[in-house]
Amino acid sequence: MIKMTRFPMTRNLYSTESCFNISPYFPFHIVVAALTQKFPVHRHDFLELSLVIEGEGRQVINGVTYPMAPGTCTFLLPFQVHEIVPGPSKPLRLYNCMFDSDFLFQSSGAGLGLKDLLFPQEKWVPSVRFTAELYEFVKSLMHGMLTEFVGGELWRDELLRIKLSEVLIRFDRQRRSESTADPAKTGGSAHADSIWSVIHYMQTHYQEPITLSGLADVFELNSSCLSADLKRHTGLNFVRLLHEFRVRHACSLLACTDMNVFDIAFEVGFGSYPSFLRIFRELKGVAPGEYRKRFQTNTNTIAT
User: Fold this and answer.
1) pLDDT interval class at 258 (50, 70, 90)
2) What are the entry keywords (predicted)?
3) How far apart are the first and last CA of the chain?
4) Which of 27, 29, 106, 284 is within CB 3.0–4.6 Å of 18 for a Cys-Cys bond?
């Protein structure tokens, strides 16, 4: 069992605990987490699916409070801001599953249509409470995912995809049946249905010289409206969001490879080495070389 630790405001899949276990072909991680104190406000650039198995508490997602108890299942989109507050009596234990948004788009290509889970985000609640029977069924699926993930046997990623797809479908059925959203209030922005496609495009093309105007042209959107929607959904402006994606990739390369820092700068999409150094330090608080040293030190400490 792994305890959640404190992370910076923006988290990514390539954390110290998970970097060497994640397949580059299927970015996915699952643990049983135990919370004994408040997990502070944070956001992340991946999708997160959790299932409470013990204890009680509450979580605040984009300013709305939801209770947590055994059977509570939560599905968080990239950059949704949230915090978790466990109850005072005993630790809040939950399966915590993290994966890249590519999974939903790849599944849609296979005919499952799972990318519909991404939008519109205003329409469906992010947290539901399963019935006792469904809770036991979904809990067994989560346990199966954890077993497959740590086992690393043949066809691991394929089985993980199948089990994850079923959990997501069960969750979506439940939240649609529970939804009390006012149809007049669920439309959101005129671009709400496309904003997650834009974010996904940025996640898969950040190594290219992307511009806001060029992105707007690709999706046939107004640049000003697109800029406002990105800020509203992620809390970041276009440039900062692009830098987040590039620096995230740089962090994973620094942590998991011996690639030269100079080469990393251009590999992740920066046009100049000085710009990379300046922006990396702004976002991470240290130079790339120091980040690598700290990561290696932490990894060696864990190993011993």
Assistant:
1) confident
2) DNA-binding, Transcription, Transcription regulation
3) 18
4) 29
Domain positions in the chain are 10-183, 192-303
Q: Taking every pair of C-alpha atoms in the chain, what is the biggest distance, in angstroms?
A: 57
pLDDT digits (tens, 9 = 90+) for 4-32: 333 334 455 544 344 444 555 578 899 99
Say how far apart CA 15 and CA 301 lie, in whole Å.
15
Helix (H, G, I), strand (E, B) or coil at 68: strand
Average pLDDT, the chain: 81
Taking a C-beta distance cutoff of 8 angstroms, is the pair 286, 294 a contact?
yes
In angstroms, rounded to a whole number, what is the distance separating the alpha carbons of residues 136 and 141?
A: 9
| Residue in the structure block whose two tokens are 């590999």 | 267
Instruction: Give the pairing of strands 39-44 and 10-11.
Output: parallel
DSSP state of 191: T
- Rounded Cα distance between 96 and 93, Å, is 9
What kind of fold does domain 10-183 have according to CATH?
Jelly Rolls (2.60.120)
The CA-atom distances, in angstroms, between 203 and each of 200, 241, 245 are 5, 10, 6
Q: Across-strand partners of 60? A: 65, 83
Name the nearest CA neighbour of 233 among 101, 38, 103.
101
Tell me if the bond preceding 120 is cis, omega within 30° of 0. yes
CB atoms within 10 A of CB 148: 20
The answer to whether residues 85 and 27 touch, using CB atoms and an 8 Å cutoff, is no
Q: Give CA–CA dist 68/71, Å, rounded.
A: 8
Q: Return the CATH fold of 192-303.
A: Arc Repressor Mutant, subunit A (1.10.10)
E strands along the chain, which residues? 10-11, 28-35, 39-44, 47-54, 57-61, 64-68, 72-76, 82-86, 92-99, 127-129
Pick from 98, 90, 53: nearest CA to 72: 53
Q: What phi, psi does 70 have (nearest 5°)?
A: -50, 130
